[in-house]
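RECORD TYPE: inverse folding
INPUT: structure tokens
STRUCTURE:
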């Protein structure tokens, strides 16, 4: 007989399983409407591949998996797609999410199925594809895609089937094992085939004698499958706790069972794998316990996924007027639901309709008295009291340092807490915030990497262009050098150009210097322009002040008088200087007008080029207009350099 180990902590709450495990599984009729959330697993939500008004068959794929941790969703019955709408999700947050709504037609007509007659002939990849296509996830509550665990990167020597079902009130797996023991053993053999025939240990609590006997009988002919009876203790059904009970080994912190050569699967998941391979049926139904003192027909029901809680409660004859709380899941790890239109999903294993005083009332908790009972009860060997303080004060880094991620949210700490502190709710909040912060940090890191990649690309492009320019310059210099070497008597064009520029500068300096002290003339022109601007601003300010009957009007009037005299003096001085030198102040205006006219003619000719019937003629006109523009520009520049130069008449330009 296999040795059984123990794990740290744990509690012994009242089991309350006899309310629902005495009767056979009852098949619930197809409801009139089904609501299937697109997120029934831990990964990314599936993507709907049907539209409103489409007819679907039972078992037809209606939403495809998006990513490794996502799972397919199939129609649980035949009917028409009524809508793709938001519904309240079966989650602690009670938030809504996208769902596919099906109005069933009552025919329950299957799509064509493809069962496998000889699964031994299938390859591992074929088996995995069948399991993945069927949308199978862990039915123990985690919602982890089943195919992921079945393709580990490590060598597996032990397959553990979790049949403990340690949560009070829940008996879905108990009845499943009693009635489908042969199918479960065949499903185990399929998983062993995938994992290269490891030893299989079925861990089941001693409070299920009928299920133990049924499994032992079904597995009697297979020496590689062992039914292991373990003591009744909560939470022996936790994955890491069950592994320690059956093997004495502990999963390393931050690791997974595959790291120590173990794969763990829920007994319900094994039955779903059998249905997918041997019957060709995807995961569209599950066994759900309906129990509690407010239930007239407590028991286990085979329900279609997507069935609303209200429909199942009505079928089980639940008196809602006697119900103090509706809990989805067990009393330890479940959560209260307020809306009975909430749909059941793949991981919904129980509805607890508790009457008054059956469950502890939700009340304000008291202050922590630091009794330490939570630490004694914690099966993960954590410090729940410290995690509570860190979660409450939002010190998430400290919570992570104290291994918050190892918390399995079993509720043992809250069950023993004399102050009735809802510890698990604080841990869930902290985990959610840490996940959000990590996601934001990852997005920020992706944005930073994209920015740095862009900057590097632009820098590389700039360097490449500069290198290309240098290469062309070197090539041109080499060609010029070769050309001079071939003809040493030829004039150097660069030196010639520099010489011409220097000659022009010298000529300009020689021409301007004796004729006009340029700086003095420019100073007079600038002073006159400033005087005009000040006079204009002051006149406007005076007009505004007079319009508003402002007190500053008299002061502005005096300032305006002084500026008028100053401006007149500046204009007189500039005019006298121009007369003395024999300058014509209108010459520059004439040249500027000529240049503006030349620019206008050129723009008009360029605009006409696109629609011209004779482009050649227009191009010739453009060349002529450019010549006039260049002449006008040159004339204006010459005048500005030498104000005594005579203006070229506009008609000549």
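DESIGNED SEQUENCE:
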């Amino acid at each position: 007989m296999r040795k059984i180990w123990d794990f740290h902590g744990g509690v012994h709450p009242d089991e309350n399983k006899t309310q629902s495990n005495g009767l056979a599984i009852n098949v619930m009729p197809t409801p009139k409407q089904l609501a299937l959330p697109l997120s029934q697993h831990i990964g990314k939500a599936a993507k709907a591949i049907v539209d409103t008004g489409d007819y679907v068959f039972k078992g037809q794929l209606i939403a495809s998996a998006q990513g490794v941790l996502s799972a397919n969703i199939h129609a649980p019955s035949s009917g028409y797609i009524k809508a793709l709408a938001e519904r309240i999700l079966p989650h602690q947050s009670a938030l809504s999410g996208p769902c596919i709504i099906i109005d069933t037609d009552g025919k329950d007509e299957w799509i064509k199925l493809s069962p496998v007659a000889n699964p031994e002939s299938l390859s591992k990849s074929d088996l995995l594809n069948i399991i993945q296509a069927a949308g199978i996830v862990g039915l123990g509550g985690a919602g982890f895609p089943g195919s992921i665990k079945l393709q580990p990167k490590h060598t597996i020597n032990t397959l553990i089937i979790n049949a403990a079902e340690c949560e009070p009130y829940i008996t879905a797996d108990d009845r499943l094992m009693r009635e489908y023991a042969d199918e479960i053993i065949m499903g185990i053999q399929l998983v062993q085939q995938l994992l290269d025939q490891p030893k299989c240990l079925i861990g089941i609590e001693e409070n299920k004698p009928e299920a133990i006997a049924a499994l032992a009988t079904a597995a009697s002919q297979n020496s590689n499958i062992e039914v292991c009876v373990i003591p009744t203790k909560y939470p022996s059904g936790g994955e890491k706790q069950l592994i320690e009970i059956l093997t004495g080994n502990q999963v390393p912190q931050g690791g997974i069972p595959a790291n120590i050569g173990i794969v763990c699967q829920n007994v319900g998941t094994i039955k779903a794998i059998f249905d997918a391979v041997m019957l060709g049926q995807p995961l569209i139904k599950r066994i759900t316990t309906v129990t509690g003192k407010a239930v007239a027909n407590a028991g286990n029901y085979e329900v279609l996924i997507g069935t609303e809680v209200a429909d199942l409660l009505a079928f089980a004859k639940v008196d809602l007027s006697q119900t103090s709380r509706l809990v989805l899941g067990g009393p330890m790890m479940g959560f209260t639901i307020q809306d009975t239109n909430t749909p059941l999903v793949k991981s919904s294993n129980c509805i607890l309709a508790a009457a008054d005083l059956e469950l502890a009332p939700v009340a304000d908790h008291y202050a922590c008295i630091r009794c330490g009972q939570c630490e004694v009860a914690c099966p993960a060997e954590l410090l729940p009291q410290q995690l509570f303080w860190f979660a409450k004060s939002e010190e998430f880094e400290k919570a992570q340092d104290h291994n918050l991620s190892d918390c399995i949210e079993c509720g043992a700490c809250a069950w023993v807490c004399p102050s009735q502190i809802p510890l698990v709710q604080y841990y869930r909040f902290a985990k959610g915030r840490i996940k959000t912060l990590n996601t934001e940090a990852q997005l920020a890191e992706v944005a930073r990497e994209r920015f740095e990649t862009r900057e590097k690309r632009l820098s590389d492009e700039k360097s490449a262009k500069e290198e290309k320019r240098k290469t062309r310059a070197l090539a041109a210099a080499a060609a010029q050098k070769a050309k001079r070497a071939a003809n040493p008597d030829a004039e150097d064009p660069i030196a010639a150009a520099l010489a011409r520029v220097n000659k022009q500068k010298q000529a300009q300096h020689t021409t301007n210097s004796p004729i006009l002290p340029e700086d003095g003339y420019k100073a007079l022109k600038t002073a006159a322009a400033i005087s005009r601007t000040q006079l204009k601003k002051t006149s406007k300010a005076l007009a505004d002040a007079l319009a508003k009957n402002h007190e500053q009007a008299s002061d502005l009037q005096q300032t305006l008088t002084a500026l008028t005299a100053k401006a007149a003096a500046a204009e007189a001085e500039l005019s006298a200087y121009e007369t003395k030198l024999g300058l014509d102040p209108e010459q520059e205006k004439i040249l500027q007008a000529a240049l503006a006219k030349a620019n206008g003619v050129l723009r008009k000719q360029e605009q006409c080029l696109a629609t011209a019937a004779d482009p050649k003629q227009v191009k010739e006109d453009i060349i002529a207009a450019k010549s006039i523009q260049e002449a006008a520009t040159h004339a204006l520049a010459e005048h500005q350099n030498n104000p005594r130069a005579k203006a070229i008449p506009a008609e000549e330009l």
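NOTES: The two ends are 117 Å apart (CA to CA).
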